[in-house]
Design a protein that fits this description.
20% strand; 5 helices; 6-stranded antiparallel beta sheet; Beta-Lactamase
Length: 194
């Protein structure tokens, strides 16, 4: 394929991607995820819910949406956080003693002014690749209660309904990185050909 044709096709792809991104930014699946973030604390009688996405490029985990929080307000290393451990292992976690644990949650608590006492976190699997692409985390069972196995089962059922939306966000990140890398390669190729 001629370099001019490749450049033209890449520009067309960028233009289409920009249109999709613009529409996505206006609507996307954010209203649906925000609805789940509002519904889940009521269903599980807890204070907060957060939906996290794994960033495939830098191995961090970032907040897509959460109770009282903005998108990407929370970003933690996968290796140093409970939500990251859940994503890494694919296993849910219940921890009823977070106030006495050391970890990324302490920094997040300081940033948000929230105190994490207990947590339930479940992984969200992608359908197309079978990879864990995110997690749902709920915090602080009300009335100083503890999260139960029934809470875990309910949250996993909800995670199954959210998985396509989370995977779409995850794949969009990969596509954006691929387009960026392709643009750099084409620019380098063009500079060498000139």
């Amino acid at each position: 394929m001629a370099p001019n044709t490749l450049t033209q096709r890449l520009d067309e792809l960028r233009s289409k991607q920009k249109k999709i991104d613009d529409v996505w930014k206006k609507t996307g699946n954010k209203p649906l995820l925000e609805f789940f973030v509002e519904l889940i604390p009521r269903a599980l009688n807890c204070e907060r819910c957060s939906i996290f996405i794994l960033d495939p490029e830098d191995d961090n985990v970032w907040l897509q949406c959460g109770t009282g929080l903005k998108e990407q307000q929370v970003r933690v290393p996968r290796a140093e956080s409970l939500v990251g451990q859940v994503i890494s292992t694919g296993q849910f976690q219940i921890d009823g003693d977070m106030e006495n644990r050391v970890g990324a949650h302490e920094w997040v608590d300081m940033q948000t002014g929230f105190i994490t006492r207990n947590v339930l976190c479940v992984p969200v699997s992608g359908l197309s690749q079978g990879k864990i692409t995110g997690a749902i985390q709920v915090l602080n069972k009300r009335s100083f209660g503890k999260f139960t196995d029934d809470d875990h089962k309910t949250l996993e059922k909800l995670a199954a309904h959210i998985q396509m939306n989370i995977e779409h966000i995850y794949l969009r990140q990969q596509l954006a990185k691929l387009l960026e890398d392709t643009s750099k390669a084409v620019a380098l190729l063009e500079s060498r050909l000139s």
